Amino acid sequence: MSVGRLPSILLKLLGQRGVSGRDAIESFLNPRLKDLSDPYQLPHMEQAVERIFEAVDRGEKVLVYGDYDVDGVTSVALMRTVLEAYGVDVNIYIPKRGEEGYGLSEAAIENLLKDFGKPDLVITVDCGTASLDEIAQLGEIGVDVIVVDHHELSARGCPDCVAVVNPKLGDAFHYLCAAGVVFKLAHALLKRRRVKGFDLRDYIDMVAVATVADIVPLVEENRLLVRHGLKRLPHTENAGLQALQQVAGLSGSVTSMDVGFRIGPRINAAGRMDRPEDALSLLVEKDYDAARCLADMLDEYNRQRQTHEKQIRDEAMRMVEEQCDAKNDPVIVLGSRNWHPGVVGIVASRLMRQFYKPTFVVSIDEEGVGKGSGRSVEGVSLVGAIQACPDDLIAGGGHDMAAGLSIREEKISDFRKHFAEYVVETTSPEQRAPRMHVDAEIDFDELSLEFMDSYDLLQPFGSQNPQPVFMSRDVWLTEAPRHLKNNHLKLFLRQGICEHDAIFFGGGERSLPDPPWDVAFTIDRNTFRGRTSLQMVIQDVRAAQKI
Q: In which region does residue 530 sit, left (phi positive, over 0), alpha (psi from -120 to 50) or beta (all else)?
């Protein structure tokens, strides 16, 4: 669709995203793979490529070490696939969350040396940037290390190793997830030495899954990679991704929401249940029937994860009611010895959204050591909070909006106090107050499938390119709300003579005012029994206000 034919409301939405001018709009709406930048712009890329080709030419023993979440597992799968294309016999090590913890740990190094012997080269993906002592330990026994990562640097500086291919060391590409950095490394290798029959575009769907699931900003090249990766997913040649879409009930086009809520959680569930190797096996499996068995296994892990999550969430809600002032406390920090460490991040995310407060949820082991996961609200950096509380923590790190920590059980109360002080000192009451951001006001008669065709060009939606929230005024019900399972509501709405159906997730828990309403909502395509329609997804409802 040409820029001149775009509805004015979409031009407004583009302007809100900092996109204006014909060329910029065209590039945003129709990103092209040929516009990918030179991978050698990334720090230490030259050194990494040279060392990898030394390993290829010498037939060295190479081990790829990665994290257990979606980004980590996809990064391992892609790195392994690329190295195998060059004829390298690759060993893989993914730590178990419960036994070895996150990142390149001393326990994991001991286990990988026991399992595989001493490798010549270790390539860490989605971890390693902050593992200065562990990388030094490998160096002392003659193991070279390349770090391929996207996490923040340690306050102690950079690891002493062959290369740290991490955009945080440079001035660009800070938005990339680890799989995006691995994709760049693969691109750099292939620019230097092509492999007959190997097309990196065949793996862009895997990069898209990681980018969406890791909630990194969907801007610039991330947006390009995800747009093309999502387009490829329904036709993927990856047997594991084929099977995963079948198990998740996906057929036809795939959105970033589908990845975030249906594909990503099933891959993540394997790591949460301490079976990350099953997720990796799925992504590298070439036989569809075998992949389907693995996908079913991940689906079962996800159901187990949901059971653990509900138990923890229910208990956490009771603790909030009994121990916290949910209205006035600036943070939520909860811990228990009954909680599964693989699920605390999801519960932290749910509590953060429900109460709009930076939240840490901690699973404490029998030794009194807690592993916690945190989720934040806009304007509160969890990395900053962790750095502000060094005496309370054993370790911690991550991103501004999502982070992890280790803590002694007896220190949780102190950390809660100091975390709250940090938030109060670095934010205003207005910043801490929950608010609904509305992108544009729209009338029901503007909402149509034709409008959706142009609206879809704004996709993929995600971090820093959020799905637009619209508002319509003076909306009436045409019939009583229909209650669905899980406290969702089906609404039948009318504005003037135009009618639209809507879904209000969790709306059954709300006390709704009498109509007419002002409604805030997002829009999606809904296909049911072969018929596609525009569906409103209600975000909030208030009594209609006169203007």
A: left
Count Cβ atoms below 10 Å from residue 333 Cβ, excluding itself.
24
At which residue do the structure tokens 């982070």 appear? 403
Nearby residues of 215 by Cβ (< 8 Å), 6 or more positions away: 260, 401, 402, 462, 463
Distance of CA 510 to the CA centre of its chain: 29
Antiparallel, parallel or unpaired: β 395-398 and 369-375: unpaired
Token reading at 362:
């901690």
Give Cβ neighbours of residue 123 (< 8 Å, ≥ 6 apart).
52, 62, 63, 64, 65, 79, 145, 146, 147, 148
The span from the CA of 329 to the CA of 474, in Å, is 36
Task: Give 144's strand partners.
Answer: 121
CA distance 375 to 437: 20
b vs e for 81-118, b when ≥16 Cβ sit within 10 Å of the residue's Cβ? Answer: bbbebbebebbbbbbbbeebbbbbbeebbebbbeeeee
User: What are the angstrom distances between the C-alpha of 544 and each of 150, 468, 495, 498?
Assistant: 46, 21, 12, 17
3-state helix, strand, coil in the chain (%, to 5): 50, 20, 35
Per the listing, tokens 């989605």 go with 126
One digit per residue, the tens of pLDDT, for the chain of length 547 reads 556 678 889 899 999 988 888 889 988 988 999 999 999 999 999 999 999 999 999 999 999 999 999 999 999 999 999 999 999 999 999 998 777 777 898 999 999 999 999 999 999 999 999 999 999 999 999 999 999 999 988 878 899 999 999 999 999 999 999 999 999 999 999 999 999 999 999 999 999 999 999 989 999 999 999 999 999 999 999 999 999 999 999 988 899 999 999 999 999 999 888 899 999 999 999 999 999 999 999 999 999 988 888 899 999 999 999 988 888 899 999 999 999 888 898 899 989 988 999 999 999 999 999 999 999 998 899 999 999 999 999 988 877 888 889 999 999 999 999 999 999 999 998 888 888 889 999 999 999 999 999 899 999 998 888 899 999 999 999 999 999 988 899 999 999 999 999 999 988 888 899 999 999 999 998 877 778 889 999 999 999 998 7
302: which 2 tokens?
A: 């996800």
DSSP, res 135: H
DSSP-assigned states of every residue in 204-270 = HHHHHHHHHHTT----HHHHHHHHHHHHHGGG---HHHHHHHHHTT--S---HHHIIIIIHHHHHHH
Other Cβ atoms within 10 Å of 311 Cβ, number: 15
Query: What is the dihedral angle through the alpha carbons of 7, 13, 17, 23, rounded to the nearest 10 degrees?
Result: 10
Burial (CB count <10 Å: 0-12, 13-18, 19+), residue 367: exposed
